[in-house]
Each structure stands twice: as C-alpha cells, then as structure tokens.
Amino acid sequence: MINVNNLTKQFGDNQVLTDITTEVKKGDVVAVIGPSGSGKSTFLRCINGLEEATKGEIIVDDITLTEKTLAQVREKTGMVFQHFHLFPHLKVIDNITFAPIETKGVKKADAEKHAKKLLETVGLSDKANTYPNQLSGGQKQRVAIARSLAMEPEIMLFDEPTSALDPEMVKEVLDVMKQLAQSGMTMVVVTHEMGFAREVADRILFLDEGAVVEETTPHAFFHHPETERAQSFLEKVL
Amino acid sequence: MIDLIPSIPFILKGILVTLQFVVASGIAGFIIGVLLAFAKIGKFPLLKRFADAYTAFFRGTPLILQLVYVYFVVPEVTGWEIPKLAAGIIAFSLNSGAYVSEIIRAGIQSVDKGQFEAAQALNVSYWKSMRKIILPQAIKHILPALMNEYIMLLKESAVISVIGAHDIMRRSQIVAADTFNYFGALTIALIIYFIMVRILETFGAKLEKRLRYSD
C-alpha cells in the first residue's frame, strides 16, 4: 500500500531523515515511535507530500508521489494532526462536508448524511451544529478524524493525535482509532502512547536521529528490543 | 463669520472632488494591494522581489513628492498633459497599494499555517483553500487595518491641493485668501474632514462588529 524507498529529507543543512526504506501493507497498523526530534512527523508528512522528499521515493498504492500525482496520492490518504486544525469559522458538520463538496462535487445533502453517520461513529452526533471552539480537545480530535474519513481515504496518517490532549481525553480518541484499526483501515500512527502501540499496532517502526533503528512486532519491540538505543528509549518511557 | 456664508457652497463642492478622488484611489489601491500581497506570499521569487521592492519604494519616499513627481514628470517625459485629478489618483493608488499589500499579506499570514495544511491534506486546491478557509479567517485581521488605511487616505487626500486640484482643502484656502478670514474658512474645512472621517469610522466599526458576530 505504501512503499518508502531510500527516503532522505534535509531542511537546509539539517538532515532530518536518512535513507528510510519501509513498506506498509493494506490493513496494517504501523506505530512510528522514537524520541522527539527523531523525524517521525517529517516521515509521516512526506507520505502525503506536505513535505517534499530531498531524495528517494514514496509510492502509495502503485502511484509514485510527484508534483503531478500529489492530488491522486492525497485522495487516498487522510491525515490527523496533533493540533486538530479544524476550520474555526465552520460548524462541525460543515468542517466534515467541506472537502467532499468542494473537491469531489458530492451533493450537500449526501455529504451531510455521510457526515452525520461519521459523527455517530466518533460519538458526537449531538455536536453537528456547534462551532469547533465550543468543543473539548478530545472532541475536536474526533471531529478531525471524522473530517478525514469523509474523504473516504484508504490510508490514515496520524501525527501525534493525542499529544495535545488533556490526559482524561486521550482514551476517547484512542478508542476511535482502535475502532478504525479493527475495521481494517491501513494506518500509520506517530505516537507517544506506548499502550496503544503495543495493543493495536501490527508493527513498530522505531526511529532515532532520522533513521529506522528497529522495525519489528510490538511484542518483540517491547520485550526484547535489539538495539541499545531502543532499550534506553523504552527505559525512559515505560 | 457672516461674510463667509456665500462661500460655503463653494467649499462644500470640494467634498465631491475629494470623494471622487478618495474612492477612485481607494479602489485602485486595493486592487494593486491584493495583487502585490499574493505576489508576496506566492511561490514565484521574481514576483515576490518585485512586490517587496515596490513596497519599499512607495513607503520609503514622501507621498507629496510622489504626487508632484507624477504631475510634473509624466508630462515632461511623455508629453501627456495629465489632468490634476488623474495625477492624484495615480499617485495615491500606487502609494496606497503598497500599504494595502502589507495589510493583506500580514492578515493572511496571521492565519495558522495548520489551516492550510489541513486543507491540503484534504486535497483542497490552493485557491479554494485561500478563498474559503484562509481569507474568511484573515478578514478579521485585515478589516480594521484596512479601515485605518482608508481614513488615512481620506485625510491625506488634502495633499492634492498642492497641485491645484479643487478639493475641500484647496477651496477653503481660496476662500480664506479672498475674504482674509483664515479662521473661518479653514475651520469649515476642519469640520468637513472631521465629519467625513467620523462617518467612515462608524461604518468600519459596524462592519467589524458584524464580522465578530460570526465567531
């Protein structure tokens, strides 16, 4: 579903990602873990072209990401951000229907019907007509997930979706993500939630200093980390 | 004061001249400002450089000199006897465009970058994101500053009197010189400008309130 080949990314002189090669299969849930500054978010943002790779290639569903195929790749990928980025001037329902109506030409009534169904899945049916600033962080993030799903992506990218949330709201977002994973969605999740990674992920991608240090199953990663760097990271976070 | 009464209609006619001039410069300046603002935030380095240089020049030289320059240099170089009002409109709209472009650029850039990224991730095109996501949020920052710019423009318009356009300022000076009543004639001009600015301010405040309402 996603093939990353020799991905390298530089910001000026700063080398953020070095020669990353990996593959995500259809239905896989991959947790990307690593210390802050390890390039996790940049890696994720390269997949849907929010950052342009300096070297290497990204292939999403057999389409090689270039400027020309950017729209095609983005059609297949949804993204959820750490800080939600809901559109503050639009009601919750309009946040969700905006992209389908504007980019796919879906009829308003159909888009709203779909949006209501999605709001039900994320447990926010009663919030359709409120503005984002009246929602809690956890609710905002669930709306953001619904907004992404409205475009019917085949892959969902999560960029630290619970890092900006108060602790008591983390679970409601993770529950929605779990539900999504169980429905067979292909997911790449940059996260600091080790519990989630252990429980839900099929695979762990451990990044440090912009390189893949370990790529393995959650069981192997959390019980027998091979590298010293992974060991010392786990000692700190567990 | 009584001796001035017959001259009052003469001064009042200047309102039309001033308004004509301010509205035309305001509209043209706004269009120039929008184009420059998009050049500044766009991805073409050449356009960006041009827009930056343009702004630096028009903010870096006196408006009155720009006006006199247009009025005297254009005929000298091209042979076209430029009418006073046209010279004024050209100079003022070129100048105002520089300020407006900064107002719009700053307004757009005040919107969280994440808004644009979210729209991109949803596959919404640049111009659609700009029109329906970014600008509706930016307008709250742009409008108050833009109102300010138009108030400045209205007041600064008095400068066109130096090339002899018959605006409020010029007419009140003519009346003053005729009647030797500087106090009376110039006070009338002061009052007229003040009332016009107040009207503009009230209008701006109403518009702002309305926008805030939609938050």
Question: What would you note in describing this structure?
Answer:
- The complex is a heterodimer of chains A (238) and B (215).
- Chain A starts with a strand and ends with a helix.
- Chain A has one domain: Rossmann fold (3-Layer(aba) Sandwich).
- In chain A, strand 9 and strand 10 (211-216) form a beta hairpin.
- Chain A has 9 helices and 10 strands.
- Chain A is an alpha/beta fold and 238 residues long.
- In chain A, helix 3 (92-104) packs parallel to helix 5 (137-149) and helix 5 (137-149) packs parallel to helix 6 (167-182).
- Chain A is globular, with a radius of gyration of 18 Å.
- With 215 residues, chain B is an all-alpha fold.
- Chain B has 8 helices and no strands.
- In chain B, helix 2 packs across helix 4.
- Chain B is flat and about 70 Å long.
- The N and C termini of chain B lie far apart (51 Å).
- The mean pLDDT of chain B is 93.
- The interface between A and B is medium-sized, with 25 and 19 residues.
Using only CA atoms, what is the Rg of chain A? Answer: 18 Å
Shape of chain B: flat
What CATH architecture label of chain A applies? 3-Layer(aba) Sandwich
Strand content of chain A: 25-35%
Q: Total strand count of chain B, please?
A: 0
> How far is the N terminus from the C terminus of chain B?
51 Å
**Tally of alpha and pi helices of chain A:** 9
Strand content of chain B: under 5%
CATH class of chain A: Alpha Beta
> What oligomeric state do the depicted chains represent?
heterodimer
**Low-pLDDT regions of chain B:** none
Q: Helix and strand string of chain B, N-terminal first?
A: HHHHHHHH
Over the alpha carbons, how many angstroms does the gyration radius of chain B reach? 21 Å
Largest interface, Cβ cutoff 8 Å:
A-B, 25 and 19 residues
Keywords (chain A): Amino-acid transport, ATP-binding, Cell membrane, Membrane, Nucleotide-binding, Transport
Subcellular location (chain A): Cell membrane
GO molecular function, one term (chain A): ABC-type amino acid transporter activity
Family (chain A): Belongs to the ABC transporter superfamily.
